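Lecture notes, unit on protein representations.

Consider one protein chain, 885 amino acids long.
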Amino acid sequence: LERMPPVPEAKALLSVDGGRCPTDGAVLRFDPWNPDEHACPRCGRTQSGLRHHRAWARYQHLWLAERAVELAALAALTDHQPDAAARRAANLLGAYGERYFRYPNRDNVLGPSRLFFSTYLESIWILNYLSAAMLLRETGRLDEATERAVHEVAEEAANLIGDFDEGFSNRQTWNDAALCAIAVWFEDEDLAQRAVQGQTGLIAHLRGYRDDGMWYEGENYHLFALRGMLAGVGWAGLAGVDFWSEPELARALARALRAPALTALPDFTFPARKDARFGISLGQPMYLELWEAGLGRLQSKEEGAVEFGEGLAQWLHALYGSAPVRPELFESYLHDAPLDLLPAPCSRSRLSWWALLDMAPELPASAQPWSPPSVFLEGQGLAVLRTGGRYVSVECGASGGGHGHPDRLNLTVHADGILWLPDVGTGSYVTRDLFWYRSTLAHNAPRLDGVSQPSGDARVEGFDEREGWGWARGRFGPVTRSVVVGAGYLLDVVDLTGSDERVLEVPWHFQGRGEPTGGNWKEDTLSDGGFVTGVERFVPVEEGLRSVERAAAGRSLIAYFASPGDLLRAEGPGRPGEGRQTFYVQRVRARNARLVTVLEFGARASVVRAVRVRGDLVEIETAAGTDHHRSGGKEWVIEGPAGRVVLGATVKPPVLPEILLDLEPPVRPTGAALRTDQPPPLDGSAEGFDTAEPLRLELEDQYRRSEESYQGREEFSALCWAGWDESALYLAVEVTKPELVIRPADAPPLLLDNEPDDIHSDGIQVYLSDAGAESPVVGYLVVPDERGAGLRVRAVSDASGDPATVRGAWRRTDTGYVITLGIEWPDGLLAHVGGRVGFDLIVNEQVADRVRRAGQLVWSGGNGWVWLRGDRQDRERFGVLELVG
């Protein structure tokens, strides 16, 4: 009200260095009133420059839209300077009306956008922008000039957002909500129907929360998608579709609101499963608003919601009474910026305008405190045991789409106020350690043969709780994990079955400090992808039970490793932002293997005296006597001093929503590689190649676009001729592209993300595999050297390959360029007449006035958009090269 806040003139940029302290890597403090000087909260230094400014602009655009609607709400609902508030809100709306078309829709990361680098951010922004405009218009405070500006902005935003349908995605929930808001603004019934009832509209996404209420990408994206859903539901009501009055839809919303409360850790943070941020409290104002608004709407609309509402009220009372939380930056909630440590738990009065309009006037009293049960979420495949006041979960189910991790059968343990075995989620999408957090070794999950788990689903085979014991068992391929939790200890049994000898490893990322005793350490190795250092193997002085005792915050945990095999320790990235930490790995090589571990909560020998493994029987000697544990097929039997307990439950596989099924698997194209009597010269020409049967890349459905659609074969296309002999595959790729844009080898790094800079250049990507087996993929990214005829070759990010086995050259032509390659056959891939080779070819397209590439031609089929592809290609989409004699 006192002064106009700064409106960025720049489009937001996502980069490695922008918005981060170059000294310690901390995220710089967001101050909406200071566009040029950005303080580091860790070292105190101030940073400036264009990269930091454009990172600041990301949050500033969003913050300003929030301020506009907050001011409009003040004008509409209060007597606190309503005229001044309305004028300032209109100032902000008009400022974007003047600038919106000056922000370029290009160089985006995920979908078209003018203000940002991804469409979903444009959707978040336009929802607040139009909320402000609606409040002003409905109260007669929107002048004609500002209304025209809003019209123009909303129409362009509709074109951008409507052009990029992400299908079934947490982000598409926000896109649907934004389109619904735009439809209400323009009174566009067709657009409203698409946003609400379309194939990927709000109703379809609501049904995607599954019967257990949880979004398939885990709690982090569940909460984000749920906020977008509730925003969309509000606008849908204005369009004539009242979700809260439809029993099926209201029940689905109620399940979605309840699910994260059931899986929350005892410290009220959500488990950092998949690509989640670590250690985020559910007491954040942004999350409190979800349950406040949901409770308010359920109580007012849905007759059957009384019982659920009581549980939700208990949950909210528990959150409001929890310890103070450190506010976090969220793209969809910046009302508290700039952030400081709150001196007390958040109160209802601190919530935003949206909560004020939707929540109940008073939070209902709760007769009982919040006390969540053990729970099995069928759709997620997540088993949570809250036995003996402790939290133990085994993660099964599907990996979780693009945000999933190879962590099937991951074990999380929270006991005595300590998160002893965390799932650390993901730190940042633009730093290299992303690949560590997306590896099996970074989790408390088993892996085979020294590599991360392949994609696939794990299932829970058993789940039960009775008489003070809890049990869960999951299976992923040939590996099962059985977890039994009692009053004083946890028993973990990992079994490998099969006919071939394999290496089974189980990592343990314990928190706290402490090391094994009674032995020495000897240097060893561990396959890790380049993130692990200091690998050592424990050599005990004498054979027997090995143990590690860890201490944290005055509490202790002892891990007893009761099976033969190696115990390794190493150092790798720890919790995001906390530096490197020591972790352990159990390792055994066998045909059928069993790794038995017992975790004791409390001082050494306070409960556990000895652990013995005798075949299928595990004996745990305690102060009260000996517990005998044995797996009985679909049950777990415990016989001890207190008697016999049988834990067993039939677990049905989840019924997934039809929208999640891939009903149209890709059709694999087929091409020919012709045998050559002698290797072609590979001099950048087609000399030596039989050009009778080219592979063609010239159709619109082979193009992956960014902001612009395919311009036609005269502007961008390619022909590829393939030859072979027993030593190599030979390719001549003739590209039609009038203007070449080749990234120089000595160009400064772009520092945009984790992808290699050479994808943002004219050039090609080539992939080879055994067409009939799950053999490793070999892939190369190839870029011409602008200073000569040579090629710059590197292995792609998600495949193997030795660039030294690739030779070739390139040359310019009147219509573009030609690359010729010879690729030695990878080990295990035998070349013979009639052979079939998995193959794909991608041609990258760069344009002179862009930073990021404009698109790609893909021989096997474009399959959508270029964003987030990097230098990767799904092997399921490879075509087949037939080796012809």
